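note to self: the first set is below, dont mix up w the second
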Amino acid sequence: MKFVTLATTATTFAVFCLISVALANPALLPKHEGYPMKNAESPVTGQVTANDPGQSDAHGTDALLKSAESVKKTEQRLVKTDNQRIVRNQGAGRLPAVDGPQITIDPPVKAATKVNPDRNIP
């Protein structure tokens, strides 16, 4: 029974992988300058061997700017609304000065007692 379940799971996974490859749409990929390819041809069939023959070289400022533009639609600009009240930071271990009610935290121990050396704990 375990073998049948394993075989069914593996077959289903393989079918889904093949379907995902078959349905992949290269038109959804971002456009880029490409790699510098010459119009190289196969010596046997004469068919072009490059995916993008005659494409310009992908180096320089233009290629960097175009690659940065293609990522802009996916970047996130998250703003933490809790930090809008902060007027100035006080430093490490201290609460910042905020616009609104000031919160103070009392120390956990306000007074300590000294234990005498002659104390006897039963």
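second set (the one i keep forgetting abt)
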Amino acid sequence: MNEQSAAYFIFGLVLVVLFVGIIAFYYSKKRHKKVEEPKYKMLDDDE
């Protein structure tokens, strides 16, 4: 494996790890209420 191939592999690996980290952060149990609350607040009757 030459240097260019290794650089592409490392770059791709970093992107995958970053993507998985963002998904894990967004769907974590701690954020569940914060993420879901606006959806139900929108459906509440204002009157």
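remember for set 2: The chain has a mean pLDDT of 87.
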